[in-house]
Amino acid sequence: MGVLIIVMAVLLSMNPRNHVAYGALIVVFAVLSWFGSFGGLFIGFLLALVGGILAIVWQPAVRTPA
Fold first, then answer.
1. DSSP-derived secondary structure for 25-40
2. Would you list the domain boundaries of the chain?
3. How many of the other CB atoms lie within 10 Å of CB of 40?
4. Which string of DSSP letters, residue by residue, matches 2-66?
5. What is the dihedral of CA 36, 41, 43, 46, to 10 degrees?
6. CA-based end-to-end distance of the chain
7. In the prediction, which pLDDT does 24 show?
8. What gap in Å lies between CA 41 and CA 28, rounded to an integer?
9. pLDDT tens per residue across span 21-62
């Protein structure tokens, strides 16, 4: 699950317009990691959960052409 969370984070940084979808997937994978590997010894679960929530509520800066 950790690898999938990292992949979603990389995709989020490459395509910030889809921040809600990638953030939701990060949260889903964080919750699923709890059942598969005890949440990455709990700290991984917390970091992924907080990061996913931050990705969902993040408002990317709008760039206007000069």
1. HHHHHHHHHHHHHHHH
2. 2-57
3. 18
4. HHHHHHHHHHHHH-GGGHHHHHHHHHHHHHHHHHHHHHHHTHHHHHHHHHHHHHHH--PPPP---
5. 30
6. 42
7. 93
8. 17
9. 999 999 998 888 888 776 567 888 888 899 999 989 988 777
